Amino acid sequence: MTAAAHTCLEGGCACGAVRYRLEAPPLIVHACHCGNCQRQTGAWHAVNALLESHRVVLLRGKIETTELETPSGAGQTVARCSQCKVALWSNYHKFSQGLGDIVRFIRVGTLDEPSRVPPDVHIFTDDRNTCAPEPVGAPAFPRFYDPMKLWSGESLERLSALYPKDSPTISTYCLVRTKP
Fold it and tell me: Is domain 17-178 annotated with CATH 3.90.1590.10?
C-alpha cells in the first residue's frame, strides 16, 4: 500500500462503540488462508494489515482482550469491542518475539473502506478451503515467505526500528514460520 493511498484510514466494530484510526500505511497486508484464520473468522481467509501498535489510535470505546492458541504454540491476543465482541486486531506472540504488543494485525474488514487495503500477499495457501477461489492479485505462498524479499525497504526499516539491537529480527520470525 502506498503512502498516497493512506489518508484517513479509520475503522470500528459492528455496533459502533469502538472507533480507531491508522496513523500510517500498513507495513504489509496478509491474506492468510490457514485453518486457524478460517476458524476464527468464519471465512475462507483473514485479511490482516500489519502496523506498528503505536500507530493504531483508539478514538473511542473499550477494548477487551482474549488469549487464543495458535498452531505455533506461541498464542495470540485478540482485541475485541467490549460490547459486540467483534475482533478488531491481534498481536501474534511469535511475531513480537516476547517484546509485547509491538505490531498489530488489523482486521481489514473492520476498516470503513476495506477495499483501499488489498492483500499484498496470500499465505498458507496449502490450507486454502477447496471451495475458495484461487488467490489473485498478489503473490501466493504455500506456507510463508521471506519478508526480506517481499517487504518494501521502508517497511523493513520501520519494523527493525521496533526491535532492540540484540533481539531476534523479522528474518528470524520468517525462518520459524516457514517450517511446516
Answer: yes
Closest CA to 12 of 71, 72, 77, 62: 62
Task: Answer yes or no: are the C-beta atoms of 83 and 17 closer than 8 Å.
Answer: yes
105 grid coordinates: 494485525
Whether residue 168 is predicted with pLDDT greater than 60 in this model: the reply is no
* 68 or 85: which leads in pLDDT: 85
What does the domain layout of the chain look like in residue ranges? 17-178
DSSP string, the chain: --GGG-SSEEEE-SSSS-EEEESS--SEEEEE--HHHHHHHTSS-EEEEEEEGGGEEEEES-EEEEEE--TTSS-EEEEEETTT--EEEEEEHHHHTTS-S-EEEEEGGGBSSGGGS--SEEE-GGG--TTSPPP-SS-B-SS---HHHHS-HHHHHHHHTTS-TTS--HHHHHHHHH--
Closest CA to 167 of 121, 82, 98, 85: 98
Residue 142: is its pLDDT beyond 80? yes
Q: Cell triple for residue 100?
A: 509485547
Q: What is the value of pTM for the model shown?
A: 0.84
Residue 24, pLDDT score: 95
